Amino acid sequence: MPESSFTNQLVASAERLFGLLDRFSQARVLVVGDLTLDEFLTGQVERISREAPVLIIRHETTRQTPGGGANAVYNLAKLGAKVKVAGLVGKDSQGEVLRQIFEVAGIDTRAILIDPDRPTVTKTRIAGHARQSVTQQIVRVDRKSDDLPDSDVQLQLADEIRQQLDTVDAVVCSDYGDGVLTAPVIEAALSHPLTVVDAQKNLGRYRTAGVFTPNLPEAEQAVGYAIKNPQTLTKAGQDLLALTQAQQILITRGDEGMSLFDRSGAEHHIPAFNRTDVFDVTGAGDTVVAALTLSLCMGASFWEAAVLGNLAASIVVRQFGTATTSIDEMKTALQTLLEEFEGRGE
Q1: Distance between CA atoms of 217 and 262, rounded to whole angstroms?
Q2: Per-residue pLDDT averaged across 241-252, rounded?
Q3: Are the C-beta atoms of residues 317 and 274 closer than 8 Å to each other?
Q4: Does the active-site annotation cover 286?
Q5: Could you give the 3-state DSSP secondary structure of residue 38?
Q6: Model's pTM, two decimal places?
Q7: How buried is 256 (Cβ within 10 angstroms: 0-12 exposed, 13-18 middle, 19+ buried)?
Q8: What stretch of H or E contains 87?
Q9: Which one of 144, 149, 162, 186 counts the least CB within 10 Å of its CB?
Q10: Per the residue annotation, which of 150, 280, 286, 328 is the catalytic one?
Q11: Among residues 321, 291, 113, which one has the least CA distance to residue 213?
């Protein structure tokens, strides 16, 4: 779709888009995901250690935020939705912290199970700075298990998911490859009529889910070839629909925007709304999924839902680390976008 045509469609849809944002708080969503705690430890570099050629850092702050699938959960809550989460944490302090963060945000955590054999996935980033200098990451320490959950834990989680299905408008599968989304869990999640899948690989495991949201590298991995021009992009969209049996595919393409494909053969392209103030794309896909899912829950068309997902992502990439946005921020950004297009005379 040429950008001028997109602009006309955006302006014509403005009132409806604002109306969808107003109704986000009515949506009820269950997220099934790989739950991660992101830790950020920062301090000032004091000197080089005499024990080894390494920096000694005087600790200043520790910040803990939801990461991985937990970031998708948090994004939905910050957009006003009624959110439930199903997943696994370890019998450790990190799992307790993650649960507390959710509960403070009003998220229903009853379907989070404790897996005593596996730690809560935790990514600890240690950063340091000299006086009057920028803070830079020095090392990242990951805590996780490569073992799958015990079969009894898998079945228990699947049962927890099935008990929630009638109480929500949509299910989001946020698969970061950390072992929570096993076959029984996926089967339970796909029992809901509106399932949105955000998976880094093995998309075929979610065959028949309604909507998939791969980014460009994930789409290329799934189809097995590079997406480097409009022809291969169209082919990839069609091949992904065939692979997944999905109703709709949304490929997020960074500063190239988004491309939408559905089973009717329709294809739409949405330009990036923010190409200049991009500081960190970490977690932006979770934000896209959150806004897209809430829009679909409220009856949006796939195009409208993708536009609002794109809008939400254009806000969070302005911030470092995993970030969230709000309805008010999205309304302001939408108004600014409309004024920008009108100023161009398009």
Answers
A1: 20
A2: 94
A3: yes
A4: yes
A5: strand
A6: 0.90
A7: middle
A8: strand 82-90
A9: 162
A10: 286
A11: 291
